[in-house]
Design goal:
This protein is mainly alpha-helical and 149 residues long. The protein has a domain of 98 residues. The two termini are 30 Å apart.
Length: 149
């Protein structure tokens, strides 16, 4: 399980959230109160360096006109979506940066197979950008609902 503090860090940490997050309860309270708009912006910019790409993702979570109308805080549903995205990013960063797991052994593809290989064949998936690699991971997640476009 990813530490709640790591999820909060993706959203900008205590300086954005207004207080430290030490537990799931702290994280849930922050989401229930409504996360600051800046938490969504920082979450998206954590992956997408180019503003145009970041805004495309941001506006899939909160439509552009709605985002511009929000003064300080997101609504609960928007905050939940932001937290889910931050959780996925934190999980990806944990896996990518975790030295306990060999990154280039092809074990996952060997065991489960993948889009381009059958089980029993080692293959390493790669992307030119961090965003592309994260997108590949995101397409395999099962979200309860697809954000409004």
């Amino acid at each position: 399980m990813i530490e709640p503090s790591k999820i909060a860090e993706v959203m900008g940490g205590p300086q954005v959230l207004g207080q430290p997050v030490h537990s799931i309860e702290d994280l849930l309270k922050a989401v229930e109160r409504g996360l600051p708009k800046d938490a969504l912006r920082r979450t998206v910019r954590r992956v997408f360096a180019r503003p145009q790409e970041a805004n495309e993702v941001l506006y899939r979570i909160v439509p552009e006109a709605t985002y511009k109308r929000r003064r300080v805080r997101l609504k609960a549903r928007e905050s939940e979506r932001t937290e889910r995205l931050a959780r996925v990013i934190a999980a990806a960063e944990f896996r990518i940066a975790d030295s306990r797991h060999e990154l280039f052994d092809g074990a996952g593809a060997y065991l489960k197979g993948g889009r381009w290989n059958s089980p029993g064949k080692r293959i390493i998936y790669a992307a030119q950008t961090y965003a592309g690699a994260l997108l590949e991971a995101l397409v395999h997640l099962n979200f309860d609902e697809v954000p409004d476009s």
